[in-house]
Amino acid sequence: MLWRGQGATELLVLLAMIAVAGLIIYVSSQTILAESRRALMVSQARATVTDLASAASEVYSEGAGAKRMVYVIIPEGSDTARIYVNNTMINIGVRIDSTTTDINTQTTMQLVQGVDFPTTPGSYWVPVTAKTGYVLIGNSYLDISPASISLEVLPSNSTSAIVRFTNLGSTPLSVVLTRHWSNDGLVDLTLNTTSFTLASSGDAVTAYLLVNFTAYSDTPLQSYAGKIDVSTNTTETGDINLNVNVVGTQLPIGVSYIVIETFKNSSYSTQTTNFTLPSSVDITGSYWANATVTLDIKDPSGNSVSGYPTHFAANTSGGFVYTWNPAGATPGQYTAIANQSGISSTTYFNVTSCS
Prior knowledge:
It is built from 1 helix and 22 strands. It has one helix at 2-62; strands spanning 67-74, 78-96, 99-113, 122-131, 134-137, 142-145, 148-153, 158-167, 173-180, 187-191, 195-198, 206-215, 223-232, 237-246, 262-263, 271-272, 281-285, 292-298, 310-313, 320-324, 332-340, 343-351. It has a 5-stranded mixed β-sheet, covered by helices on one side. It has a 5-stranded mixed β-sheet with strand order 7-14-13-9-11, with no helix packed on it. Strands 6-8-12-10 form a 4-stranded antiparallel β-sheet, with no helix packed on it.
């Protein structure tokens, strides 16, 4: 009985030691996992702020209108209230244990947070756009559609386009439009308004601008360019690029039609619209057999002209008359070679241009 009691005690001690070792391993693994999770969160947050700042620097150096799309990750466990873009800083607050650690970066240019800048955990594509004097991270609170106008117009006609303005933010926007158009007098530009207010809710969040162009009868046929600057009571700005192409056929002022009369005979009695009627070349032959004659006409380079050699029959008296039209022929000396059953005859003639 003593031996059995001793064995039971040893077994309990062994089990206790195994339990303690398992607990130590479990606690250690949880600590490692927690540290890995914290390191991952910090790494993701740091990559996000660094990539956004780098893109902002790039587009700012390229000038207004430059744009990048940046893939970012807002880590799980981030503090929504600590995720923001403010002045020159991009910040993501990461909850580590019971405290929030700010991961941020500073830039040398002013930054503005867009209406849809992500503040909840997840992965996103974020636009980074250079504006005049600052960089917008996210989309604008002021949506302008279309952002450019390109139209065609005929002389003595008008054409127009409509631009929609929408306030996507939570505060009203006062919008002012400024024309930059130096083509008035050739193509006139008119706007139905140059200022309006966009509410933050209801139907008044959207307004429409009518842009009208008028060309004159003597407006040169070419493209005309300009833009409309858009400013607001906030940092929101924009511009609308304009391009109008005047197209069509113009006659000189005071001329309604022109008639050019030509004639194709020496008595000037038969009118024609053919300006280049050529003279014909008549090739005659005699003392040939009443059989097939082969005729070849060679140009000044010694090459047969198009359609030659050709074949025809001499008449019962052994003669023939063949007419060749030299339209489009190169001026110079030509050769006519007639051949029948091994007997040939060669003659030369010149083709000259009209004077």
